[in-house]
Amino acid sequence: MSGWGAKLAYKPVGFALGVGSGLVAGLVFKQVWKVLGNDDDAPNATDEDRGWGEILVAAALQGAIFAVVKASVDRAGAVAVRRATGRWPG
Questions:
Q1: What is the rounded distance in angstroms from the CA atom of residue 80 to the CA atom of residue 45?
Q2: Are 76 and 4 in contact (CB under 8 A)?
Q3: What pLDDT does 11 receive?
Q4: Please, what are the averages of pLDDT over each run of 10 residues along the chain (90 residues)?
Q5: For residue 84, what pLDDT is reported?
Q6: I need a surface site. Which of 38, 65, 70, 88 has the fewest CB within 10 A?
Q7: DSSP secondary structure letters along 22-74
Q8: Amino acid 53: pLDDT
Q9: Which of 27, 28, 21 lies closest to 71, judged by CA?
Q10: DSSP, res 43
Q11: pLDDT score at 2
């Protein structure tokens, strides 16, 4: 398979993995916040009863978890496409 063929083959895989990784990251964040936070629910930016620090820590943690999960899933997907096609999709 040509290089563009591998990229084309990865498109639907990458899309599905992206959706799945977002769901997984959300679940992981909720569990981590339950352990670290004072509440079962992470604060919303517009939550009047929460302070700036708590809101910003929650946002930073959520972003970091999302980035790590997404990178891990994207990398695993690219490796799977390479095994299936013999070409790296990037």
A1: 38
A2: no
A3: 77
A4: 65 82 92 84 91 94 95 88 83
A5: 83
A6: 38
A7: HHHHHHHHHHHHHHHSSSSSPPPTT-TTS-HHHHHHHHHHHHHHHHHHHHHHH
A8: 93
A9: 21
A10: P
A11: 56
Provide the token pair at 83: 């095994």
Question: What's the burial of 54, exposed, middle or buried (CB within 10 Å: 0-12/13-18/19+)?
Answer: middle
Q: Which residue has the tokens 């690219």?
A: 78
Among candidates 80, 84, 85, which has minimal Cα distance to 17? Answer: 80
Is the separation of the CB atoms in 25 and 12 below 8 Å? no
Which single residue is written with the structure tokens 């970091």?
64
Q: How far is CA 29 from CA 42, 48, 62, in A?
A: 9, 22, 6
Length of the chain: 90
Angle formed by the axes of helices 3-36 and 52-85, nearest 10°: 150
d(CA 77, CA 83): 10
Q: What is the pLDDT of residue 36?
A: 86
pLDDT value for 86: 86
